[in-house]
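Dear support,

I submitted the protein below through the web form. The confirmation email said the job was done, but the results page showed an empty box. After a refresh the structure appeared. I'm attaching both so you can tell me whether what I see now is the final result or a partial one.
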Amino acid sequence: MLSGLEFARQSLDLHLFFARIMKEHSFFLQIGFTQRDVGFIGRADEFRKEFDRLLTEAVSLANGVASPAVLRSGEVVTRYTQEAESASSFFTGIQIPAGITQSEAGLAGGDGAEATPALERRVYALNQRAIDLTSGLIRFKENILSSVLSCRMFTVNYPLLITHIIREARLYLQMLQRLQNREQPGAEREALNLEFFWNRQMAEHAKFIRGLLDPTENDLFDLADNFGDVFDRLTAEAKAAIDMTAPRERVTEESLRATQELRDFKEQGTQGILACQIKSIIIPLLGNHVLREANHYLRLLRMFER
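What the results page shows now:
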């Protein structure tokens, strides 16, 4: 059973990472539709703005409460986030509020924080809003995927990418529901499940990067292809550890090393995209998005290793 402080802190840490991920998923969907599907463009824009509001409230509650480790990890914002947002706004004409990123960058951690009943009530209500909003976004994504797979819609987003972002939204929803019940996750089993989850996500990131690079970027293509293979193997190994046919410690160690290497590759890619030195059809915010997810996974892996 989570204490009041643990409940508030874990909830706000979760929102600082995942609410931003959800708002960016909505943005990526929004810019991927054709003009025929103007209704879907408008709905994605509504979700993006709703998650902006959710994240704004989470930031206002998190100052002095959020975990210092989360704020230091680079999963909330990176030094590239604001530039990536500005460039993506320039390319698309969609206004991305810079104030949220500035506020997140200025957050202070709360090692000595105390949870008041008022804070707990506000966090509980915020979690419920996030549950309702994320449930709606999942249904929206599933509708898009069904339409694409039945050839009733065209989008520049791969079907696998839509499946990928549905998976992440479901994880956010599942974790919110556990928090609302004040459940303390089982450490080892939870770690193995998250390693399986994030190794698969990292593999797909590498494959998306490969598929969005210009065909002339041979060296980067080969690097991305290799990372995809490495994380496919690590996904299989994490599944074997869940089934108790492989040692968990080895999987964690190998995943940590590979994720650090992939994280560095993503950072270099984000720098190259922002400096217009890499030929691709990767919107700058996507580069920063997958970099933050690697930072998030690295923090989890270091925690699991301890």
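Response: this is the final, complete result; the empty box was a page-load delay. The longest helix spans residues 117-149.
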